[in-house]
Amino acid sequence: MFRPSHVVVGALVLIAAACSDSDNVVHTLNSATVRLVNDTDTPLSLAVVNVLDSANARLVFGQASACVFVDLSNVPALTITNGATGVSIAFTPILSAGDNVMVVAFGTTVGNVQFASLNNRFVPAANSAGLRFFNGVASTGPLVMQRNGAVLTPFVGFGAASGFVSVPIDSASITFSNQLSVVLDAGPMAFPLGQNSTVVVGPPAAGTDPLRSFTVQGC
Q1: DSSP 8-state code for residue 95
Q2: Quick one: which of 105, 181, 194, 219 is 20 to 30 A from 93 by CA?
Q3: First vs last Cα of the chain: how many Å apart?
């Protein structure tokens, strides 16, 4: 679904990473691997050393950038702008060499964009997949994720993610509940063997009531 992003900076070639959260390879040089995920209704563009690839432009709700290798010796290494207006959005990730992170954009209203950096490294149990969720909904209170009614995670507050857990790869019902009731039924979902997936829970679209969600793999 996502094509690679290629940016050349000096002698370093920044290439797209293959998409697999379970990639535990520590890349050489002073680089980190990043993917931006948009859980807002503000279109976002991600530039690497001020160079914008079309794969990373005007990302709307539910879309993710290509996986990019970032040379941390460049300052700023990454910039994010409003894809509709071109206005810069404050973004100061703390990255170290070898990091593999998913950056989730979230917020309470259109134009109010915040960021959370999630570590992608996890090795699922044999014959399983890795799964976690991000809570991008301010209105429901802490949420818990369930699979066929069985609780998978602790309660997670707004703007935070659960840890990864190992789950079977067959299809099963994934739901999210607050302290009172189920607030989102994401329906039957299956996850790739040996890979890690993140279910991102988001607020309703403007003028609607149902919560939204989408699933993305890291790099």
Answers
A1: -
A2: 194
A3: 13
Could you state, in order of their start, the residue ranges of all structural domains in the chain? 7-23+30-119, 129-217
pLDDT digits (tens, 9 = 90+) for 100-109: 999 999 998 7
Torsions phi, psi for 184 (to 5 deg): -150, 125
Q: Can you tell me whether residue 86 is helix, strand or coil?
A: coil
Strand boundaries in the chain, DSSP class E:
7-9, 12-14, 31-38, 44-48, 51-52, 68-71, 78-82, 88-89, 100-106, 114-119, 129-135, 144-147, 150-151, 160-161, 165-167, 172-177, 182-189, 196-202, 212-217
What pLDDT digit, counting tens, does each position of 137-151 carry?
A: 999 999 999 999 999
Alpha helices in 43-166 (DSSP H): none
- In whole angstroms, what is the distance from residue 129 CA to residue 118 CA? 17
Nearest to 148 by CA among 186, 122, 181, 180: 186
Contacts of 103 (CB under 8 A, 6+ apart): 34, 35, 36, 37, 93, 115, 116, 117, 118
The two three-digit tokens of residue 88, written as one number: 């810069």
Provide the pLDDT for residue 218. 84
pLDDT below 50 — which residues of the chain?
Answer: 1-28
Fold held by 7-23+30-119: Immunoglobulin-like (2.60.40)
Matching CATH topology for 7-23+30-119 and 129-217? yes
Q: Which residue has the tokens 């699933």?
A: 215
CATH class of the domain at 129-217: mainly beta
